[in-house]
Amino acid sequence: MYSSRYMAAEINNRIGILGGTFNPVHRGHLALAKSAIKVFDLGKVLFIPSAKPPHKTPHILASVKHRMAMLQLAIKNNPKFEICDIETRRTGPSYTIDTITQLRKINPSAEYFFIIGADSLQELHMWKQINDLLKLCTFVTFGRPGINAGKTKVIHLDPKWARKLLKNFTPGRMPNISSSNIRQRVAQGKNIHYLVEKAVAEYISANNLYKKNKEN
What is the number of other CB atoms lying within 10 angstroms of the CB of residue 18? Predict the structure, then answer.
């Protein structure tokens, strides 16, 4: 169910969308959302967890219940952050084109900004109905260490879309933190408190998530 805050009339109808598995959500995700709000003057950012991402290995995912709970803990102190369960309530693979289409039906007056890291620029051509998707929302890209998005040749799309994507590129904003590294550190018994919010680290420990040979 969509929260009452999302269904209510918006003062600033520029809405950021940050999708992913959030397996687990980390401080890099939060920093990215904060940067997007500041750089693109967004009224809010919707965190949209995937239920069945088409390009991820299902067995490494914690359950939707756990990932949603960690998201709730991570964003609870920021009134401009909100969770939208649109993908976890939908059956089948989670495709962005379906999500954006549905969001535009729910709130047709909103202007949507889809937030990605620079590494995703080189993969956009593989996304389902990418040319249609680029017409439905504005993609905003934030740099990651070691990734140079300064040349259109790395974007395998029509040149007009490549130019538009690079126009909305912001360098050096995304911390070099990954959920896969966090899961690996947990499995090895290493500290993750500087990578995730304290409440998230405590939740992972209390629920014994990401341990070797452990069902999550």
Answer: 22
pLDDT tens-digit profile of 135-162?
A: 999 999 998 765 555 544 568 899 899 8
Domain 4-176 has CATH 3.40.605.10: no
**Who contacts 209 (Cβ-Cβ below 8 Å, separation ≥6)?**
24, 62, 66, 186, 203, 216
Place of tokens 């959920």: 179
Show me where the domains of the chain are located. Answer: 4-176
What is d(CA 101, CA 167) in angstroms, rounded to the nearest whole number?
Answer: 24
Pick from 74, 72, 82: nearest CA to 5: 82
Provide the whole-model pTM. 0.88
Say which residue the tokens 């969770």 belong to.
Answer: 83
For residue 112, CA distances in Å to 20, 61, 184, 203 come to 16, 27, 34, 31
Instruction: Report in angstroms the alpha-carbon separations of 30 from 25, 53, 173, 174, 206.
Output: 8, 21, 11, 10, 22
Give residue-wise pLDDT tens across range 90-110.
Answer: 877 889 999 999 999 999 999
Taking the CA atoms of 62, 128, 82 and 201 in sequence, report the sign of the dihedral they define.
Answer: positive
The single-letter DSSP state of residue 176 is: S
> Residues 124, 157: contact at Cβ < 8 Å?
yes
- The pLDDT score that the predictor gives to residue 150 is 53
